Amino acid sequence: MGALKPWHIAVLVVVLVLLFGAKRLPDAARSLGRSLRIIKAETKGLVDDDKGDLAEKADAQAARQPLPPQQVQQQPAAQNPPVVDPVQRTRDVI
């Protein structure tokens, strides 16, 4: 039931010729072709933009990830500063 048979297409062509006329039909087909090309180009542009956005997000996410353990350089632990008694400190100041 869903497929177009040859006589369906013939009836469709006859109706189109009657509605638009033989002179306007080629111009209408050309306009339709141009419109479809523009839509295709815009759709491709949007898909390319989305791929670019995904690549930028992946780059940003990779930059946020920590380095693997073998690449991290460990710094020597800082020695704890000596604890100064606040009372002794005030005596030194006076």
UniProtKB/TrEMBL annotation:
It comes from the Bacteria. It is found in: Cell membrane. The keyword Protein transport applies. Residues 58-94 are annotated as: Disordered. Keywords: Cell membrane, Membrane, Protein transport, Translocation, Transmembrane, Transmembrane helix, Transport. The Tat system comprises two distinct complexes: a TatABC complex, containing multiple copies of TatA, TatB and TatC subunits, and a separate TatA complex, containing only TatA subunits. Substrates initially bind to the TatABC complex, which probably triggers association of the separate TatA complex to form the active translocon. NCBIfam families: PRK00575.1. This is Sec-independent protein translocase protein TatA. The gene is tatA.
